[in-house]
Design goal:
Elements (H helix, E strand, L loop, with lengths): L3 E13 L5 E12 L4 E7 L1 H15 L4 H11 L10 H4 L2 H23 L7 H15 L75
Antiparallel strand pairs: 1-2, 2-3
Helix pairs in contact: 1-2, 1-5, 4-5
């Protein structure tokens, strides 16, 4: 799950309002989808993790051969054991062990449905998605899915048609291009040209050499 970053922290002085404001250790789940940069949090007690595991096992047990394989895998997972003494459950070493084990458990369950869904039968896939993502994490499935990659050809933004650039015309009249033996005024050859020799606009050899 390269697109998901998941880790846990513990609040040892939390208050469980659902159970008469009972003081307990609450495990805070931090989940970030790296492909969308969306972040989510959920607060659960150890008993909630324990119940989640048992519910999944009960729902997939004996369904089919493929479900039986995943049942054995989940059952054999090193899930942290329960403690009979509340003071022992609040010890720092116990909490640290539970944080590591519960975090790995969530990652393993998510990998079942995100990385290899075709290895599961439809029943197991739907069960884990519903119990883990929707009910336990209280998220939509789209929240934990990677953002679809956009093909470069589809990512080209359409730009409006640029306005045609009008050619810049010079205000000064353009001189006509003529041959070297042609007068630019009358467009006749210099031999037959009758233009005045004193005309400053005349360019070319002088016809009257005696002036």
């Amino acid at each position: 799950m390269e697109h998901l970053d998941l880790y846990l922290k513990a609040d040892r002085d939390a208050v469980d309002k659902a159970n008469g404001n009972e003081r307990c250790t609450m495990y805070i789940i931090f989940l970030r989808n790296l492909s969308t940069d969306h972040k989510y949090t959920a607060k659960r007690r150890y008993s909630d993790f324990y119940e989640l595991r048992n519910q999944i096992l009960c729902l997939i047990e004996g369904h089919c051969d493929r479900c039986s394989q995943h049942y054995e895998h989940i059952k054999s997972y090193p899930f942290p054991s329960r403690t009979l003494f509340p003071l022992l459950a609040a010890q720092t070493s116990v909490i640290a062990e539970r944080i590591d084990s519960l975090c790995l458990f969530l990652k393993d369950m998510l990998s079942h449905v995100l990385e290899c869904p075709f290895d599961l039968c439809a029943h197991t896939d739907a069960t884990i998605r519903r119990k883990l993502i929707v009910e336990f994490l209280e998220l939509d499935e789209a929240n934990v899915m990677p953002r679809p990659r956009i093909h470069p050809a589809d990512d080209v933004r359409k730009t409006p048609n640029p306005r045609p650039v009008k050619p810049v015309h010079s205000k000064s009249p353009r001189k006509a291009r003529v041959a070297a033996d042609t007068c630019p005024r009358c467009m006749d050859t210099w031999i037959n040209c009758l233009c005045d020799d004193e005309d400053t606009a005349r360019v070319g050899p002088r016809r009257h050499s005696d002036r």
